[in-house]
C-alpha cells in the first residue's frame, strides 16, 4: 500500500514538473494614496520551470471593478449637450497584460479573447445600436480613453526572463488609480495558449490622510461632506480676497 501511495505522489510531482510550474512574489503588497501620490511602480519576480522551452509567461494586472460611460454630443432644443449612449459595467479600472515571448503564435487571439471577456462583453447601450459597427466604435472609444489615462496596456512591455527560469517585471501604476485590491496573475502557457500553471499575488491600494477623510465622509456622511466643502470654499475665497487687498493696498 505504501509503495502505491509513494508512486502516486511521485507521479503527481513528475507530471507537475513536466507540464510546468510558476512561483512568484512582489516587492510590496500595500500602496497608499495620499494627496501627494503621483503614480508608483512595483516589482513582480519569481521562477518558472517550463517543462517545455517553448512555453511562455503571461502577467496580468487587474484593478478593482468600475463602470465607464460613453457619451456623445447631441443637439437638444438647439443646445449641444453630452448624452450617455453606452456604458461598460463592472470592468477593471486598470488592466495590463504582458508576455515573455512577443512572437507567440496565438498572441492576437489571446489579446482578442482578453479584451472580449474583460471589457467588450460588459457593454450596455441605452438604445438599439445604430449599425453593426456601433459596438466596435464603443469598444475603440473605451480603449482610447483608458490608454489616454494610462489604465490599459496590451503587450506593450516585455517580461524579462533569465535562462528560462527566473523572471522579473515592473508594473507602472499611473497617478489616477482606484483604491481596492489589484490582482497580479502569472500564467504559464504553451504554444496553443493552453494554461500549464499559474500563480497570483494581491496588492492593496488604499487612501490615507485627507483623501481617506474626504472619501469616507462623501459616502457615509454626505451632509457633513457638503457643509465641510462649503466652509472650505468660503475660507479659501475669504483668504484670497484678503491677500489681494493686502497686495494692492
Give me the oligomer status.
single chain
CATH class equals Mainly Beta
Major sheet: arrangement of strands: 2-13-12-4-7-9
Question: Which homologous superfamily in CATH is the superfamily?
Answer: Immunoglobulins
Secondary-structure-based class equals: alpha+beta
> What name does CATH use for the topology?
Immunoglobulin-like
End-to-end distance, in Å? 98 Å
H/E topology pattern: HEEEEEEEHEHEEEEEHH
Describe the structure concisely.
The chain is an alpha+beta fold and 249 residues long.
Description of the structure:
It is built from five helices and 13 strands. It has 249 residues and is an alpha+beta fold. The chain has one domain (23-228): Immunoglobulin-like (Sandwich), CATH 2.60.40.10.
List the helices and strands and how they pair.
Layout lengths: L1 H18 L1 E6 L3 E4 L6 E10 L6 E7 L2 E12 L2 E14 L2 E5 L7 H12 L4 E3 L8 H16 L2 E7 L1 E3 L3 E8 L6 E10 L5 E13 L1 H12 L1 H26 L2
Summary keywords:
249 residues; alpha+beta; Immunoglobulin-like; four-stranded antiparallel sheet; 5 helices; 34% helix
Amino acid at each position: 500500500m505504501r509503495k502505491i501511495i509513494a508512486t502516486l505522489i511521485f507521479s503527481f510531482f513528475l507530471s507537475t514538473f513536466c507540464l510546468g510550474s510558476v512561483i512568484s512574489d512582489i516587492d510590496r503588497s500595500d500602496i497608499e494614496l495620499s494627496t501627494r501620490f503621483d503614480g508608483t511602480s512595483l516589482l513582480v519576480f519569481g521562477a518558472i520551470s517550463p517543462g517545455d522551452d517553448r512555453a511562455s509567461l503571461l502577467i496580468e494586472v487587474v484593478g478593482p471593478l468600475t463602470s465607464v460611460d460613453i457619451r456623445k454630443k447631441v443637439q437638444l432644443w438647439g443646445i449641444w449637450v453630452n448624452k450617455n449612449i453606452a456604458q461598460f459595467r463592472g470592468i477593471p479600472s486598470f488592466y495590463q497584460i504582458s508576455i515573455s515571448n512577443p512572437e507567440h503564435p496565438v498572441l492576437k487571439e489571446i489579446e482578442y479573447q482578453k479584451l472580449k471577456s474583460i471589457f467588450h462583453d460588459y457593454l450596455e447601450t441605452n438604445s438599439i445600436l445604430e449599425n453593426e459597427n456601433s459596438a466596435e466604435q464603443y469598444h475603440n472609444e473605451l480603449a482610447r480613453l483608458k490608454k489616454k489615462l494610462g489604465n490599459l496596456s496590451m503587450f506593450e512591455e516585455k517580461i524579462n526572463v533569465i535562462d528560462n527560469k527566473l523572471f522579473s517585471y515592473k508594473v507602472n501604476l499611473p497617478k489616477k488609480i482606484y483604491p481596492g485590491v489589484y490582482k497580479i496573475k502569472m500564467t504559464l502557457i504553451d504554444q496553443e495558449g493552453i494554461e500549464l500553471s499559474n500563480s497570483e499575488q494581491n496588492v492593496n491600494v488604499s487612501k490615507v490622510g485627507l483623501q481617506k477623510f474626504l472619501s469616507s465622509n462623501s459616502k457615509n456622511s454626505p451632509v457633513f461632506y457638503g457643509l465641510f466643502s462649503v466652509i472650505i470654499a468660503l475660507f479659501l475665497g475669504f483668504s484670497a480676497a484678503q491677500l489681494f487687498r493686502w497686495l494692492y493696498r
